[in-house]
Amino acid sequence: MRAAVQHETGRPRLEVRDDVEAVGFGPGKVRLRMRATGLCHSDLSAMSGVLPQLVPFVPGHEGAGEVVEVGEGVTGLRPGDRVLVCWLPPCGGCPACKRGQSQLCLASLMEAGTPNFRLAGSDLFGFAGTGTFAEEAVVGAGCAVPIPDDLPYDIAALIGCGVTTGLGAALNTADVTAGSSVAVIGCGGVGICAIQGARAAGAAQIVAVDPVASRREAALRFGATEAVAPDGLADARARVTGGEGFDYAFEVVGTSATARAAYETTRRGGTLCIVGAGAVDDLFQINMFELFFDEKKILPSLYGGGDVLRSYERAIALWRAGRIDLAGLITHRVPLSGVNDALEQMRTGEALRTCIEI
User: Fold this and answer.
1) For residues 135 and 21, is the Cβ–Cβ distance under 8 A?
2) What Cα–Cα distance (Å) separates residue 284 from each residue in 29, 75, 272, 300?
3) Biggest alpha carbon distance in the chain?
4) What are phi and psi of 227, to 5 degrees?
């Protein structure tokens, strides 16, 4: 079968091979025929080494397809079912799940060190234990979440990561209130979904911040009340909030510099929500006096900061009701053979989301 392979950390391009095998099928597993996958910035971060990932590997974790085969002991799934891929499925039994923080469940990541592909007799890993840049993938049954028949594969794939992450940051983690002011720093696919989440929550002012003009224009279409380049943030803060700062600021880039900018644009007593996934050696610094005196809440948001299965259902309900635009997130489409075009579209900021059709 065909799959895109990252052979070494740091390589900017993937090799598309037609001799990759999906392996590991057995009890508790399902075999999926992938139909669509989104390219998420986390895939680039894994390729570059910003996010830890065993190599060689098949990138991709934002996918959707259909069940081909179910292993022994799998219930609730059968061949032909349409599913999206959940890269961090809750186990239901660990302390985090029992506390109602299933987004912190590590059960599936503990298995991410087990190869689920092979190439020329050698092991290949799937990114985050999945690997959706492939025609087929073998994953744990919990990773395959059934979807309704009216949900297209391309939109379902986005719900599997970027949509849930962005919407959840606004609706779960930050719990944006009606009438509030919001700044979103970083307006790729996830940032745009944070904007849509803030709009759905009733935010009165939503300022989008991004260095790429096309992304600023897109942010306005998706609900931002204004959009500025990074050097215009201070002026927007002064105009929109009277200099006090925003009630909520979302950092959706994953660097200490943008996190610091987001902190400084948050009002005293406001909320800074960290959504971007950054590097382990990039340190966010804050002094103890401002931490105490400003009383700003610093809230990291992993995978939308809530029960992912409920978050999927909410996203689908909002999409059906026309409250959020998911089809509009897909600005480019390429076949699997064009995956390197998709990588370039994301690196340059040309695309919000590229759908890789498999």
Assistant:
1) no
2) 39, 44, 13, 12
3) 63
4) -140, 135
Q: Are 302 and 106 in contact (CB under 8 A)?
A: no
> How is 94-106 classified by DSSP, letter by letter?
SHHHHTT-GGG--
How distant is the alpha carbon of residue 332 from its chain centre?
A: 17
Question: 241-267: buried (b, 16+ CB within 10 Å) or exposed (e) per residue?
Answer: beeebbbbbbbbbbbbebbebbbbbbb
Residue with tokens 């480019």: 332
Distances (CA, A) of 208 to 214, 218, 227: 12, 10, 4
Q: pLDDT tens-digit profile of 61-118?
A: 999 999 999 999 999 999 999 999 999 999 999 999 999 999 999 888 887 889 999 9
**pTM, two decimal places:** 0.96
DSSP assignment of 115-169, as one string?
--EEETTEEEEEGGGT--SBSEEEEEGGGEEE--TTS-HHHHHHHTTHHHHHHHI
Tokens of 222: 């998706």
